[in-house]
Structures are given as structure tokens and as C-alpha cells.
Amino acid sequence: MTPFDTSLVPNGDIFVGGEWRQGRAAPFASLYPADQSLNMEVSTASAEDAAEAVEKAHAAWKQGAWSGMKPHLRALVLYRIADLIMQRHEALAQLQRRDNGKPIGETRVLVASAANTFRYFAACLETLDEEVTPSRGDYLTMSVYEPIGVVAAITPWNSPIASDAQKLAPALAGGNAVVLKPAEVTPLISLALARICEEAGVPKGILSVLPGKGSVIGDVLVRHPLVRKVSFTGGTEVGRGIARIAADKLMPVSLELGGKSPTIVFEDADIDHAINGVLYGIFSSSGEACIAGSRLFVQRSIYDTFMKRLVAAARELRVGDPSNEKTQMGPLITPKHRESVERYVAIGLEEGGRLLCGGERPVGDGREQGCFYQPTILEGLTNQRAHLPGRDFRTGAGGHALRRRSGAHRGSQRQRVRSRRRHLDARLQTRLARGAQDRGGHRLDQYVQAVFDFHAVLGLEGKRHGPRKRAARHSRIHAAKEPLLGLE
User: Fold this and answer.
1) Is residue 220 pLDDT above 60, yes or no?
2) 98: left (phi over 0), alpha (psi -120 to 50) or beta
3) If we measure between CA atoms, which residue out of 408, 399, 409, 392 comes closest to residue 378?
4) Is the pTM of this model over 0.70?
5) Which of 113, 186, 277, 292 has the fewest beta carbons under 10 Å from its own?
6) Please, is 97 exposed, middle or buried when counting C-beta atoms within 10 Å of its C-beta (0-12, 13-18, 19+)?
7) Residue 255 CA: distances (Å) to CA of 122, 126, 234, 241, 425
8) Residue 442, class by beta-carbon neighbours within 10 Å (0-12 exposed, 13-18 middle, 19+ buried)?
9) pLDDT tens digits for 466-477?
């Protein structure tokens, strides 16, 4: 068993209203996905704990020590959080490796990303402008922004520390109180981050971290009348349910959901870059990513050559011990999730798909004890087949299996991409960025877009008499420049 620093999460307590204590629900056994060994037992929160956390968060927010603090002073606290994360960089990376089985190379990047997120929003605070707007009479008009109040942040298990930072940093920067609900199976890194926030000077009550069942804690948080905003990353159907409740409450939400994201490879693409980009897009994080490129469309003129090289490269990926510096793919998160992947691969084969590589559990080097699964590529299935479930980006063949299809014409490729409405990301592999725009960027815009509103992300409300900030919309165009999986 590879060691990790348990002092980051002593006693396995939960964090409620600025106090470390045992939760009222049954404890949870945190297991290492690579060999199912015990990390530690973690206390979990009950519905009563969740309600208490919200009430204490609201009281702390109303008290004003945080919400009334000058923005540049809140920025100093966020900078301290970032500094403490980097001071414990290796320990946090090893903890996340144990928490969800990612290779150590990936977890080190994610820890640095979390620190950078806190630094970014600290810098935003130092440049946050309010406006004196043109007067329409003998009075002064201005646009000001105020914190929303209590924000519920619900994060997934695939990249905990990065996801936590992406929700905590902007909400705290805006002067809000936050109740963080980490995924049930990955509570350790979130608890460690809470200790860092506490040490950095986040006032008591402003942050709570509640490990436990999402169906219990998440439901309380979303429905609680004192929760003024929900930020959720996870499955599409759960996101729909949150949106319905939010509509009844007239509450804003931020939803990052999943889907089956497409990649299109054109004949003018740099083949080496395109292959590495496709491999990284689906097999990094063991395919457990909301933007995993689980559908691939290749122009017919290069299809056979591209597929031959892609399959060969997939077979060479190093699947194994996440603590090994050379490992490129770790295990899946739980045995149950691996069984789900296996089930959808089997359905794909029953429906006429052809297995080009993978489709089985690896053996040797102790991998039989963990949740490992070989990188898998299926060919010859249509867009709407059952092995491509769109309801949850955490389940199904998209977790590890990659589907391939050729396309004769650009128009037909775009049509196939658009035929599935639920995807969070899309990639075009071509040598020319202008060609990417001409070949589909604008036409895919209604499906592939990111909407960013600086003040909404910070959890700030604009006063009615102030001008509304217009959100900028843009397509994400990838011109064969994806990071590599340690490949030359």
C-alpha cells in the first residue's frame, strides 16, 4: 500500500458551521480504487447536519465579517489559500490519488490548478469595478454588486480538488457563505481543503463541508429556503431535477452537466497531434470526465489509416498503479462503475458494434484487486445506440469505450454531431483555426458553447438601477493542440 498523509483529514470529522465534529449519519469507508484497500473511515452528515450547516452559514453571512469585508481584503485570504495549497502540493496530490485513483501526474496538475483558481478570483476582486451610470435626473445613479447569501456547491468525484476550487473560490470571493457537498466516494480532499480555508482566515460559519449521500444532503441543500444559489457539476438528470426545484424557488443555478462529446478529425489534420488529442480526450482521467470525447467522426479519406494508428496507440497506454510516475491510466472509481461500463460495452457488441481493442479487465501487477479496465474502442454503431447513454456522464461505455464512425462529407458529420443534444464540449482536429470555424464552429454554436458572466460566477447580484452585464458567448475550437498523454 502506498502511503499518504492522513494528518490532512484527522479523525475523519465533518465540518459544520466552522466546527469539526462527527456527523449524525453512518460512517463511510473510503477505499483506494487501485486495490480496494481502506483509506480511512469518514464521518458523514445527515439531513439534520445539512440544515444546521445552512442555518449557521446564513447567520455568519448576515453577521457581515465576510460579506462586509472590503474586496481587496477578501482577496488576501484567497491568496493565502492558494499559498497553503502549494505549500502542501505533494501531500494533497497523494491524498487525491488515494481518494479517487487518478495517476499521480494528473493529481499534481489538479492541485496546482486549484491554487491557480483561488489566485485568479483573488485578482478579480482587486479589479472589481462598480459604475456610476449616466443620470436621468437630479440624482446620482450607480451600479453596485452584493453577495447573494448562502451558496450550495455540489461537486463530482472525478477531479475533486479542482472542482471544489472552481466553486469555492468564486463564491467566497463574492462574499458569500458556502456549504460544500463533495461526492460520497471522494470526501477526503474536500475535508483537507476545508482545513486550509480555515487556516487561511475564512471566518467561522462561512464554510461547511458535508460528506455523505447526495440523495439526502443534496436534497436538503437544494430545497432549503435560505440557500440562494446552487452550483452543481454532475449528471444531466440530476441537473434537471435541481433546475425544477430552483424554478419553484426562483433561485439561480450554475449547472455543468455531462453528455457524449464529439471529436471530428478532418483530412488536413496533423495525424500525430490528432491521435494524441483523441487519446487524451477520452482516456485521460480514465475517461471519467464531463467533456470526455466519447464520439469520434473521421473523414473517410483518412479513416482506415487513422483508425489503425489510433488503435495501436490505445493498446500501448500504460494502465496501472496510480502512484507510478509512468502510469497513464488509473482505475475506474468503483467496482459498480466498472460493471456499468462493462454492461454498456456488451450492449454495444450485441447491437452490431465491432470491438477494436480493450473490452476487458487487465491482469497482472496486482490490477485484479482494483477497478481497472482496458482502454476500449468500438466501431460501427449509430449515434443513438444504448451504449451511448446521455443521461449521466459518469456511467456507460463513455467511461472508457470510444466509438468510431467515418464520414464522407462535412455536412453529414455536422448532422451526426448535432443529432445528440447533450454534449458539453466538441473538438475539431484540423491544421487551420479558420478552417475549424468554417467547417462547423459557427454551426455547432447552439450546442457547443460556454457562457461566462463574471458577476454571476462570483455570486453577486446587480442592483436593479445598474446596467446589466452582457454575457459573452463563444465556441470552443480545438486546432489539434490537445495535451499529450506523455507520448512522444
Assistant:
1) yes
2) alpha
3) 399
4) yes
5) 113
6) buried
7) 23, 27, 8, 11, 14
8) exposed
9) 333 322 222 222
